[in-house]
């Protein structure tokens, strides 16, 4: 006992504790061979342990474990008595441990401790096993842990071999476990707290996986945590193997979990709080590909057998980051691979899952994502069980959108709802919806670039409504929506939503209202400019049925009109449709911005039934109550159709004032083929009135077309009959237009017969295969990879022959500028199997306006071995372009096509280039032969190995260098100082006219001496320019412009700086700026400084249109932006500029005037033009050029006494004189419809002369006086009389006032040769209006104060009529419907004896002699009535002081004659022609000559009408009939005899128009011939004419004629023979020039084809050498 007491005292005493610690330390140190120390160790018998300053080193001398202070309270007695483990106190402070294992080692640094005690442990374990085997299993050990506190721990684990690193540091860790049963897995944790901790884990190498036995059963865990707190805990996770990284910074986390029972599946969670924390996770590992083949088998839904209750979960102001790609966040783009949520708040409470019921109340959920997307709030109350789902108070709010709604669902069971959602009953109450599409930009940024979406984002979409029912039958009692000012309302029902085929809907109410401002936001700008939408519109509609059985109606009401639509459609066993469309007072012209269109009112009804096209029965009816276009009324247009069993007719017709037609189309429909028979009967059309032609053109025709088949195989035939065009009161037959076409897989035939074009084409294959075969055939000649033998099995043939002829309808109506067109012909013969291709194109001559082409031709001759080509022309002129004989030939040799190009100046060869072309795969090879290379009449050289390679996006130039003496041009793509792909042109003393002279050898188009280079970078991409180019003595149109220099350098990649200057001529100009290349459109910024442009230079360029110019123009312009959308801004300044417009001979001066120009247009601010007297013409306003094709005007023009014309007869062929004007003009509108308001005054000093051209004069003289009318149908469009219009202006809106000063003189020279002229002066005040449709109205009066009319009669006498003052012309609307009251006086002095002859009969000679005295007489020419139907009358008078002469007898006789119209006309005619009176009837024994004159005039008119009739009857039969009706007085019998003869001539051509036979005769209609042998001979006239040459130049003729030779000889028979030479020439020497091949019917291109080109080239080369010897003397001038 004493020993025990002493032992206890020893152990408890500090001295004893020291000895024990010292012994233990030495033992352990010796056992482990390492340093080990214990500062203090104290053990009590109650089970308490105190350990201070415990230290252990590893074998490397590093700290393995260090513990500062450890205090343990263990219930030793409790453990001994009851076996309960009760740790009543455990406080450990300052623990530091380092566990490590180096790379390549097996053991950790603590292994030496295990090895040191391994033997003792094994013995102890063996003894323990023996004891345990002898004992029975005890009861589970009860464990109770009172508060355990760890402070200032620093633990590290470094396993380099395993690739794992872990660090754990914390300030404090406390755990209080009330109950712990490890066997039952029961844990009752009162408190657990971790504070100020840092946890780090790294996985650097893969971990070897160990398969563990799977246990599907749940762990019997029973856990209760009263309070778990994490305070300022940091966790870093890095898995470099799987590229997964995590970082947690938990500021505050608290968990209260009263119960977690996995065995009974029960969770009772009181609360979770997480505040001010940051959680980041990144998974950059490679994602395993999904195995689509594996499909998860779906299992029926079962409610989870869990009992879960959650008090609340509250997340406050947290930050969560999730990444799957290591990329930066992009503002404005929500990237699911990089999501960063900030300010995340989440609060959910009352969460319940129990007994097939679930509930939750989400109070708060909001966050901000790094993209800018923000969830401002999400609130919802959820209550769901096995029979219903209720979601109330749903509120979702994002950046700009918000949703508030309630949702209820009822179902049999939740499992049924998942499998059969359509059976669930739905009750959706949409309280409000505000949807802003800008929120979608975060998820699809490209939407922001879409103009439609941008406009949609201007306003949010607002909606509310309700939906009740189920997916089988949904009712929509009310659904309303709005966007901006637009509103939408719907009410109806929908059934079978999930089955589209069985979808049934019924919407009795569908309403939409909107306006133009809304609609224009979704329409392209060009459409907005083209249409004027209604300001407001409302649409009411209803629809019901199914997609294959539909009934709907719609009504649209707007300020433009109303549209009604009703329709039915059923597609069950057969198709049934019924449509009714009604348009009422719809302003179509306003909608389309076309003033020609008027208000539209019509109805269309269509019905049909049928199972297919073959048995379709349908009808179509229409009623066009109001239809107007361009001022013409088409109301009454008929559109009707009927179809039965797929066969029907469609009729379209109209009978109106200007259009009368019927179009009947017969249809036979089939699913494969169909038949169409179209018959158009155009009875009459006034194309001018219809707005289709600018001049009076009318026509009629009958057109028929038949089509059988389908687009791949069909037969087509057309015919045109009775086609006539009336133009300028002349008939132009169109002839026939017959087309026969047959297209099959095995053949293609086409034949065309018409007045203008005739020909046929035949092939033994389809058009598609023909084109493919022809392409492949031509490719074989130049592509070495393809052989002609590869096509021999195709057996494709084709023959083609077409001719183009000139006809009056072409050059007089359709193309009035076409002066001449010789017959053109194209002939092609193609046979693949025989490798044959022959093609001839002849275009002998054409002159159209300024364009003249002479003898253009092409020849292609190809066989199995050769391919020969030839193309050329004798002359080509168009404006400054003037080319003489030019041609090229081609021959095939060794799969290369050799070309020879020649151009001539007269007989002198100017250009000769020989080249050859080949094809290698997809690359084209071009080579130029250096032999006889001739440019601008001079020899040039080029290396023999030159070559150009061309392919898709590829160009290569090899040794392409043209040189002559010191001139050189290089084209290359291998510059050393250019890194990008490029094409470069290098010039060395190169003359520009070397090339430009080809287009006009007589007049210099452009010239100058070039030096430097021009480089185009990236020719197939973002094109850039590099340049160092100079042009010395630059000329245009033979006018010197100065010296041009251009520099372009690359500042950076794709960025260029440009400089251009034009100096030392009449122009001083600088351009500088930069350019950025881009494939979609380069960016540029250029400054153009126009320092000086001499007006004299502009006058020289005008080629005489401007003369006597002085001063200069200057200015600055900046151009920038994109090449697709350039911006420019600048101004042009006229400095002391003056010039004379040649044709007006008026000098205009601009001292200091400015024109401003920008993208908006041209601005003129008081732009003033002065005449030579200093009077001003001011232009103020703008010309807007936003649309260059249709600029807008906002201009004001003012002038005061401005001399607009000051010319003489030599200056102009149409007018001359002086014109002085006052003007006040406003111009608005655009180019399509200018709106002009003008106030014009013609001032004193005006003396203006207008000359009627001789061509117009001749037309006037040919006008007949007989008008033929259609008595049967006076209103026939073709034959009715139309109002003549001198001028027609369409597309103008003019309102003007015209005033004329009484002293202004106007003179119209009718005929310069005869001297006929009209001169007037007077006062006028007129209102002139021109409507957009061309209607001209004129009102006002022109009162003539003086004037005269001079005329010549038959070039025998000249007479002058003086216009009486007070004569007037008054207009009341129609310019051609003026009322005239004009009197003109002709004064004549003549004896009155002839006038008084009847009264003087039987008087004395003395009495008759006194009447031989000359007296003054006045002949009045009175013009009254309407201007188109003038009433012309004459009146004779005498001056008042002479009326008493001869006792008043003469005046009495004059007054008597004025009452006798026939006698008056006779006397007036005699006075005007003979200056004396005509003897009265019986005075000389004759009846006078007026009847004969009248008879002759009528006979000429009848002759013309008979000829027109014969042309219409015989058409193109080849038989020509000429009629000539001659009425005259015959005196051969000794007395006057009235005779009328009808001359009839018939003409026919034979032998391809080479032989012309003409026979004719004269037939007496009135009177008889005095020679019986000549009377009515059947073949009185015979003519035989033979054309010796095809061009008709040489002819021979034999003839016999019966003709009236002279008064003396009378009627004779003349027989003769003649040789005729006919030639046209422009220059006199051409008359004696030799006959060209083109003039004998052979195109000059034929001699090239016949092999004569080489011989000609040799002769030309010989001639060229002689000429070159002369030119070499001029080398110094180069």
UniProtKB/TrEMBL annotation:
Location relative to the cell: Membrane
A Pfam family matched in the record: TamB
Start and end residues of each stretch annotated as Disordered: 1642-1678
Keywords, comma-separated and alphabetical: Membrane, Transmembrane, Transmembrane helix
Protein's membrane topology: Single-pass membrane protein
Residue ranges annotated for the Translocation and assembly module TamB C-terminal domain, each copy included: 1166-1625
Compositionally biased tracts (Basic and acidic residues): 1652-1678
Statement: the UniProt record of this protein carries the keyword RNA-binding: no
Predominant cellular place of this UniProt entry's protein: membrane
A GO BP annotation: protein secretion
One term under GO cellular component: plasma membrane
Keyword Transmembrane: yes
Transmembrane annotation, as ranges: none
Protein name: Translocation and assembly module TamB C-terminal domain-containing protein
Phylogenetic classification of the source organism: Bacteria, Pseudomonadati, Bacteroidota, Cytophagia, Cytophagales
């Amino acid at each position: 006992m004493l020993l025990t007491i002493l032992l206890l005292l020893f152990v408890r005493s500090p001295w004893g504790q020291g000895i024990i610690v010292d012994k233990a330390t030495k033992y352990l140190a010796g056992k482990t061979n390492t340093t080990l120390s214990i500062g203090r160790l104290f053990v009590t018998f109650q089970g308490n342990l105190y350990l201070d300053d415990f230290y252990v080193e590893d074998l490397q001398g590093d700290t393995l474990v260090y513990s500062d202070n450890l205090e343990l309270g263990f219930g030793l007695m409790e453990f001994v008595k009851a076996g309960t483990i009760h740790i009543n106190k455990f406080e450990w402070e300052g623990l530091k441990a380092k566990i490590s294992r180096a790379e390549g080692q097996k053991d950790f640094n603590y292994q030496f401790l295990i090895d040191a005690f391994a033997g003792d442990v094994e013995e102890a374990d063996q003894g323990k096993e023996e004891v345990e085997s002898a004992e029975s299993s005890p009861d589970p050990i009860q464990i109770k842990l009172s508060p355990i506190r760890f402070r200032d721990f620093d633990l590290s684990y470094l396993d380099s071999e395993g690739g794992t690193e872990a660090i754990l540091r914390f300030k404090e860790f406390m755990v209080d476990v009330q109950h712990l049963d490890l066997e039952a897995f029961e844990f009752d944790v009162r408190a657990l707290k971790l504070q100020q901790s840092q946890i780090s884990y790294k996985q650097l190498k893969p971990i070897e996986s160990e398969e563990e036995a799977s246990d599907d059963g749940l762990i019997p865990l029973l856990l209760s945590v009263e309070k778990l707190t994490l305070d300022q805990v940091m966790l870093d996770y890095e898995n470099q193997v799987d590229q997964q990284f995590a970082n947690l910074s938990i500021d505050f986390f608290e968990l209260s979990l009263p119960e977690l029972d996995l065995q009974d599946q029960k969770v009772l969670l009181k609360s979770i709080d997480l505040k001010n924390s940051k959680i980041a996770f990144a998974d950059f590992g490679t994602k395993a590909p999904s195995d689509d083949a594996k499909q998860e088998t779906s299992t029926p839904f079962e409610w989870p057998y869990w009992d879960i209750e959650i008090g609340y979960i509250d997340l406050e102001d947290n930050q969560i980051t999730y990444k799957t790609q290591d990329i930066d966040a992009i503002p404005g783009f929500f990237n699911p691979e990089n999501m960063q949520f900030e300010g995340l708040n989440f609060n959910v409470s009352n969460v319940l899952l129990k007994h097939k019921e679930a509930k939750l109340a989400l109070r708060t959920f909001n966050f901000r994502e790094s993209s800018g997307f923000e969830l401002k709030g999400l609130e919802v109350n959820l209550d769901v069980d096995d029979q219903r789902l209720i979601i109330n108070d749903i509120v979702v709010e994002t950046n700009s959108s918000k949703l508030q709604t309630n949702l209820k669902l009822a179902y049999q069971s939740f499992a049924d709802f998942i499998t059969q959602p359509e059976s669930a009953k739905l009750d959706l109450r949409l309280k409000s919806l505000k949807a802003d599409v800008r929120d979608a930009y975060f998820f699809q940024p490209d939407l922001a670039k879409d103009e439609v979406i941008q406009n949609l984002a201007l306003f949010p979409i607002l909606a509310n409504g309700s939906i009740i029912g189920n997916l089988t039958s949904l009712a929509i009692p009310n659904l309303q929506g709005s966007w901006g000012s637009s509103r939408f309302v719907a009410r109806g029902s929908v059934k079978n939503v999930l089955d589209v085929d069985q979808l049934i809907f019924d919407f009795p109410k569908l309403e939409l209202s909107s306006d133009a401002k809304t609609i224009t936001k979704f329409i392209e700008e060009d459409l907005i400019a083209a249409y004027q939408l209604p300001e407001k519109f409302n649409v009411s509609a209803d629809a019901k049925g199914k997609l294959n059985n539909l009934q709907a109606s719609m009504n649209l009401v707007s300020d433009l009109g109303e549209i009604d639509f009703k329709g039915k459609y059923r597609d069950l066993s057969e198709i049934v449709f019924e449509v009714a469309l009604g348009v009422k007072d719809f302003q179509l012209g306003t909608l389309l911005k076309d003033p020609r269109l008027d208000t539209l009112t019509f109805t269309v009804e269509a019905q049909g039934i049928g199972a297919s096209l073959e048995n379709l029965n349908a009808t179509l009816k229409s009623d066009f109550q109001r239809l107007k276009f361009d001022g013409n009324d088409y109301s009454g247009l008929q559109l009707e159709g009927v179809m039965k069993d797929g066969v029907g007719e469609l009729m379209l017709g109209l009978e109106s004032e200007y259009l009368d037609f019927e179009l009947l189309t017969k249809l036979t429909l089939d699913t494969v083929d169909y038949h169409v028979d179209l018959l158009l009967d155009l009875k009459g059309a006034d194309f001018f009135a219809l707005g289709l032609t600018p001049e009076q053109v009318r026509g009629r025709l009958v057109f028929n077309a038949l089509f059988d088949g389908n687009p791949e195989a069909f037969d087509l035939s057309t015919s045109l009959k009775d086609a006539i065009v009336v133009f300028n009161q002349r008939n132009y037959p169109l002839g026939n237009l017959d087309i026969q076409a047959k297209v099959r897989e095995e053949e293609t035939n086409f034949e065309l017969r018409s007045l203008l074009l005739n020909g046929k084409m035949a092939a033994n294959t389809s058009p598609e295969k023909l084109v493919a075969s022809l392409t492949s055939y031509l490719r074989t000649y130049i592509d070495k990879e393809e052989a002609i033998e590869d096509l021999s099995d195709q057996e494709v043939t084709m023959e083609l022959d077409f001719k183009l002829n000139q006809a009056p309808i072409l050059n007089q109506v359709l193309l009035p500028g076409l002066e001449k067109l010789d017959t053109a012909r194209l002939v092609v013969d193609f046979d693949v199997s025989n490798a044959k291709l022959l093609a001839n194109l002849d275009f002998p001559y054409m002159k159209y306006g300024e364009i003249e082409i002479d003898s253009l031709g092409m020849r292609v001759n190809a066989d199995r071995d050769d391919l020969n080509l030839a193309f050329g022309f004798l002359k080509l002129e168009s404006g400054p372009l003037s080319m003489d004989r030019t041609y090229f030939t081609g021959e095939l040799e060794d799969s290369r096509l050799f070309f020879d190009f020649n151009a001539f100046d007269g007989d002198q060869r100017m250009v000769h280039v020989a080249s050859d072309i080949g094809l290698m795969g997809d690359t084209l090879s071009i080579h130029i032969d250096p032999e006889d290379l001739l440019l601008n009449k001079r020899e040039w050289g080029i290396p023999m190995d030159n070559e150009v390679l061309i392919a898709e996006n590829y160009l290569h130039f090899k040794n392409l260098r043209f040189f002559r003496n010191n001139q050189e041009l290089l084209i290359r793509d291998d510059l050393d100082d250019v890194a990008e792909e490029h094409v470069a042109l290098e010039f060395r003393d190169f003359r520009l006219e070397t090339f430009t002279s080809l287009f006009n050898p007589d007049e210099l188009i452009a010239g100058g001496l070039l030096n430097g280079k021009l480089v185009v970078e990236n020719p197939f991409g973002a094109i850039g320019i590099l340049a160092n180019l100079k042009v010395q003595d630059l000329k245009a149109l033979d006018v010197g412009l100065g010296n041009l220099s251009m520099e372009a350098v690359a500042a950076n990649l794709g960025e260029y700086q440009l400089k251009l200057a034009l100096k030392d001529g009449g122009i001083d100009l600088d351009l500088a700026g930069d350019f950025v290349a881009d494939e979609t459109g380069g960016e540029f910024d250029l400054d153009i400084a126009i320092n000086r442009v001499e007006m004299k230079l502009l006058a020289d360029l005008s080629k005489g249109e401007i003369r006597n110019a002085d001063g200069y123009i200057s200015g600055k312009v900046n151009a920038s932006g994109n090449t697709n959308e350039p911006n420019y801004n600048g101004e042009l300044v006229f400095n002391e500029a003056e010039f004379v417009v040649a044709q007006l001979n008026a000098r205009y001066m601009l001292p200091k005037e400015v024109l401003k120009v920008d993208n908006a247009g041209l601005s003129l601010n008081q732009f003033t033009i002065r005449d030579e007297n200093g009077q001003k013409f001011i232009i103020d306003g703008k010309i807007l050029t936003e649309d260059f094709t249709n600029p807008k005007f906002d201009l004001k023009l003012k002038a005061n006494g401005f001399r607009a014309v000051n010319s003489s007869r030599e200056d102009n062929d149409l007018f001359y004189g002086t014109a002085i004007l006052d003007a006040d003009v406003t111009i608005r509108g655009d180019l399509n419809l200018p709106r002009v308001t003008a106030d014009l005054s013609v001032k004193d000093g005006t003396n203006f002369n207008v000359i009627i051209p001789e061509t117009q004069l001749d037309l006037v003289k040919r006008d007949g006086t007989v008008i033929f009318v259609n008595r049967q149908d006076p209103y026939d469009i073709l034959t009715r009389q139309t109002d003549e219009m001198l001028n027609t202006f369409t597309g103008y809106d003019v309102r003007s006032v015209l005033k004329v000063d009484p002293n202004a003189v106007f003179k119209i020279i009718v005929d310069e040769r005869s001297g006929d002229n009209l001169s007037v002066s007077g006062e006028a005040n007129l209102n002139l209006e021109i409507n957009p449709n061309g209607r001209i109205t004129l009102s006002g009066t022109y009162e003539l104060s003086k004037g005269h009319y001079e005329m010549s009669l038959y070039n025998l006498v000249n007479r002058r009529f003086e216009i009486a003052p007070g004569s007037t012309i008054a207009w009341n609307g129609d310019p051609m419907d003026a009322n005239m009251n004009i009197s003109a006086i002709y004064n004549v002095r003549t004896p009155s004896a002839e006038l008084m002859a009847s009264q003087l009969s039987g008087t004395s000679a003395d009495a008759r002699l006194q009447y031989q005295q000359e007296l003054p007489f006045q002949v009045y020419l009175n013009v009254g009535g309407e201007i188109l139907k003038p009433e012309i009358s004459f009146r004779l008078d005498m001056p008042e002081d002479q009326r008493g002469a001869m006792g008043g007898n003469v005046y009495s006789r004059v007054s008597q004659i004025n009452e006798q119209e026939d006698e008056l006309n006779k006397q007036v005619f005699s006075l005007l022609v003979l200056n004396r009176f005509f003897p009265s009837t019986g005075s000389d024994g004759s009846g006078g000559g007026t009847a004969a004159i009248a008879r002759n005039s009528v006979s000429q008119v009848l002759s013309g009408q008979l000829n027109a009739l014969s042309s219409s009857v015989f058409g193109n039969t080849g038989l020509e009939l000429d009629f000539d009706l001659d009425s005259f007085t015959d005196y051969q019998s000794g007395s006057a005899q009235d005779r009328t003869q009808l001359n009839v001539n018939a003409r026919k051509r034979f032998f391809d128009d080479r032989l012309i036979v003409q026979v004719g005769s004269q037939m007496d209609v009135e009177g008889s011939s005095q020679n019986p042998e000549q009377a009515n001979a059947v073949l009185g006239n015979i003519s035989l004419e033979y054309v010796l040459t095809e061009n008709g130049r040489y002819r021979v003729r034999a003839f016999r004629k019966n003709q009236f030779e002279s008064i003396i000889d009378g009627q004779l028979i003349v027989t003769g023979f003649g040789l005729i030479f006919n030639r046209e020439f422009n220059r006199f020497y051409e008359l004696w020039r030799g006959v060209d091949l083109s003039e004998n019917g052979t195109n000059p291109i034929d001699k090239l084809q016949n092999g004569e080109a080489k011989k000609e080239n040799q002769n030309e080369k010989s001639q060229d050498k002689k000429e070159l010897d002369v030119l070499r003397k001029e080398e110094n001038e180069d």
